[in-house]
Amino acid sequence: MLAGASTQKHFDGLDLRNFQETRTNEFSLDRLGRSSVDRRVISYLLPRGIAASQTFQKPKQFNGWVALRAETLTSPPKGPKLPIVPSPIGGEGLAENPYHAHALLEEPRDDYSTALHLRFLFGKYGTIQPIPSAQLQSEQHAFSDLVDPARALMSKLANWCRQRVRR
């Protein structure tokens, strides 16, 4: 909403900030299945999405994905083509993601125009893939069971360090 424009209607579409990429020419994606959304892939990616949402300075709530057929990015009805490159992330536990991919953004590019183009494609041709609330609560509870003890341990370690410095 514009400052001072209290009568302006609220925009109910996708937030443009979710499509802005200022660091590199790669837009991060998850492949949700081969030809359609696969529930096993969603189940695998859910704890990773929740974990990633907690890494922000102010943790965010993870609500799901917007699914879009790959062809819509590689051959869009309007605007530039965005090639998709599979880029699995190796690692252990929640750090691993074999379903990760990147859409390559044109160079030179304008971050704002690219974000508008991506939001248009995902908003017009994409489908919302929300997380079933029971599954989300279960995953968030399991994740908090891991995070809370780690925070408690870090707090105890910080207190121990403070006491050692005072001596």
Task: Explain this structure.
The protein is an alpha+beta fold and 167 residues long. It is 41% helix and 13% strand. The protein has 4 helices and 5 strands, in the order βαβαββαβα. It has helices at 39-53, 70-74, 111-125, 133-166, and strands at 26-30, 64-67, 84-86, 100-104, 127-130. The strands form 2 sheets. The protein has a 3-stranded antiparallel β-sheet with strand order 1-4-3. Strands 2-5 form a two-stranded antiparallel sheet. The radius of gyration is 20 Å and the shape is globular. The N and C termini lie far apart (54 Å).
Structural class: alpha+beta
Coarse shape? globular
Alpha plus pi helix count: 4
The pLDDT mean sits at 83
List the helices and strands in order.
Answer: EHEHEEHEH
Topology:
Blueprint: E1 26-30, H1 39-53, E2 64-67, H2 70-74, E3 84-86, E4 100-104, H3 111-125, E5 127-130, H4 133-166
Antiparallel strand pairs: 1-4, 2-5, 3-4
Helix pairs in contact: 1-4
Structure summarized in a few sentences:
The protein is α+β, with helices and mostly antiparallel strands and 167 residues long.
Q: Which keywords apply here?
A:
167 residues, alpha+beta, three-stranded antiparallel sheet, two-stranded antiparallel sheet, 13% strand
